[in-house]
Amino acid sequence: MANTATHTASDEVEAPAKRDFLKILTVSAGAVALGATAWPLIDAMNPTVSELAVAKPIVNVGGIAPNTALRIMWLGQPIYIRKLTPQQIADNQFIVPDTLPDPASYTDRVKPGYETFVVVVGLNTGISCELLGNSPSDARGPFDGWSCPCDGSIYDPLGRVRSGPARKNLAIPRFTFLNDTQIQFG
């Protein structure tokens, strides 16, 4: 009698199951190897500590005297941080926004809890020219804010345009007060 191989139903089930397991194992190993190779490349694109310090600087505003402004450069633009006097706050707090070329209220221009500080980009919105008015001896115009030596635009201490060819208020950069004496940009 010839020796014939007998196949059982369990053999037919086990062979595909073993193949499926080996396929899954091979694909999983390939995915892990790809991840291990790609991660250093992805991680290298993260900013360094020094790049983060430039992108999100922290500025001490505790030493700014009332009625003066601190000028810093951030992302290639001059940023003015002005500490308002009680008189400047009183003079500008209740101006009707609809009477301005670019309507904005007092609360639109300051952060709640830190109303004595105004933070703006120090470039005229008409033409890109740096403004005067950070020190009390600078030409500030009739509203005690900033003035543009290039086109004569005048801004109030909150950075709202009041006269001249400019039609937009000074931009407000992204910033957060960390506490009463520190601002972080970005």
**Secondary-structure arrangement, i.e. CATH architecture of the largest domain:** 3-layer Sandwich
Q: CATH topology of the largest domain, what is it called?
A: Rieske Iron-sulfur Protein
- Measure the end-to-end span: 88 Å
Q: What would you call the structural class?
A: alpha+beta
Strand content: 15-25%
Outline the biggest β-sheet: 3 strands, antiparallel
Low-confidence segments, given as residue ranges, are none
Number of strands: 9
What's the name of the CATH homologous superfamily of the largest domain?
Rieske [2Fe-2S] iron-sulphur domain
Helix content: 25-40%
Which strands sit side by side, in order, in the main sheet?
Answer: 1-9-8
H and E order = HHEEEHHEEEEEE
* Structural shape: elongated
- Mean pLDDT metric: 88
Tally of contiguous helical segments = 4
> How big is the Rg?
32 Å
Number of domains: 2
Structure explained in plain terms:
With 186 residues, the chain is of the alpha+beta class. It folds into two domains: 8-46; 53-185, Rieske [2Fe-2S] iron-sulphur domain (Rieske Iron-sulfur Protein, 3-layer Sandwich), CATH 2.102.10.10. It has helices at 9-44, 49-55, 86-93, 106-109; strands at 58-60, 68-74, 77-83, 117-121, 146-147, 154-155, 161-163, 175-179, 182-185. It is elongated and about 90 Å long. It starts with 8 loop residues before the first helix and ends with a strand.
Quick take:
The chain has 186 residues and is α+β, with helices and mostly antiparallel strands. It has helices at residues 9-44, 49-55, 86-93, 106-109; strands at 58-60, 68-74, 77-83, 117-121, 146-147, 154-155, 161-163, 175-179, 182-185.
